[in-house]
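The passage that follows is intended for readers who have already worked through the single-chain material. We present the inputs for a multi-component assembly, then the predicted structure in tokenized form, and finally a short commentary. You are encouraged to pause after the input and sketch how you expect the pieces to fit together before reading on.
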Amino acid sequence: MRAFGEIWESNVFQKWLMAISGLLLVGFLLGHLSGNLLVFMGPDAINEYAHGLRTMLHGTAIWIVRFGLLGTFVLHITSAMKLSRRNREARPSRYNTVEHRASTLASRSMLYSGLLLLTYAVYHLAHFTWGVVHSEFYPKASPTGPESNGAEYIPDVYSMVVSSFQVHAISVAYVLAMIMVGLHLNHAIASAFQTLGVRNQRFVPVIRMVGPLLGILVAAGFSSVPLAILAGIVK
Amino acid sequence: MNLRLHIWRQSGPQDAGMLKTYDVANVSEHMSFLEMLDVLNEDLIAKGEVPVAFDHDCREGICGTCGMVINGRPHGPLARTTACQLHMRTFKDGDEIYIEPWRARAFPVIRDLVVDRGSFDRIIQKGGFVSVNTGNAQDGNTLPIPKTDADRAMDAAACIGCGACVAACPNASAMLFTAAKIGHLGSVPQGQAERSTRAMNMVLQMDAEGFGACTNHYECEAACPKGISADFIAQMNKDYVASVFAGRD
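Having made your guess, compare it with the prediction:
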């Protein structure tokens, strides 16, 4: 019997890892989006939601999710790196002319949209979670707030989000990143189902619709927050 | 019609190779693409030059021997057409045509447009067959096969192993070829006994040959002269992982 290591390293197994981790990340995105949209319900809704996330299960829930997410990201990224390296090596000499018949901009740019998203995700965490960039907006939202004389302290995530997105550059970068997410998902979702083997002529039209639809939904949903703030609908 | 051809010339596996330009005159629109190259080669021989090497055999579109990338598309611009069945009426007077070999690490160039597709043979050797005992053939009707399964097997069996899928794939992946072979035998009862080990061994051989991995662009399906569907790749992915869990290898 072949060793587990050999199977793990095989292309199809790596593709499965990428597909499963990718779908988990899509699930996370949808959860994240539902939380973000609470902005439209006013400061208390999103602040209590954020506070709830940090204190759920005595504060352990958020760490379980964070480690799970980190693991999922690592699997997704390492499999992407491995496969794209092998794919490059599989064609050492380039064609003089190539005419694409079926591939799309989204499908050909997965590595690049993925790398840009990774870069953006780090910046995004540094901004909203660690408070190391744009730190002027952070103190009120910090989970370790000022001494609160025994009363429960609820960080003000709402005002951090609103004051951050009132800065045009932050909003523009955010919307561009969300367009990138949409582009990535446009190919990713149908691709994941194909890799997992969920495909026949019954599902193809549905799956080909779900990917772009979810891509647009996620991109538009996330972008609606900074756009509403810039438009002054949320303040 | 008169054409200007830019053809990949490479004297051997170690040679770097380069595109060279040739003018061909008085090409008939009724010629096949390969016949047009024959005319060019007659010219080259008459001039004492080395003719362009290219693979060909049946010239009927069924053997899978011919294959070259014509203007950036394996087997040329027409769908479901091999290079030998591509006729010059598809082109027009004054056209410039770029002709290159299949490019993949697992398909090293032997000379000019001829590549070594031995990697496909080695994938087949790992499981692209059904082991049966010798003796009298059993009565056909003792093995009921639903029509849809037989059709599906036939769709996959249409693969002629030409390698256009690899040539078209941005990752030089052989997944459509391998999936067609696995899907062909996996669709009928005769192939079930070895189904699990077949998927495992053929997929791992494909990796070992240095083919890339599928990123679901579906360029293979568009380039396949037999129109084989990428559905078979999904089936192969499923069969492979099933065989990982089955542990029969």
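Commentary: Chain B has two domains: 3-110, 117-131+144-246. Residues 4 and 23 of chain B are 5 Å apart (CA to CA). How closely did your sketch match?
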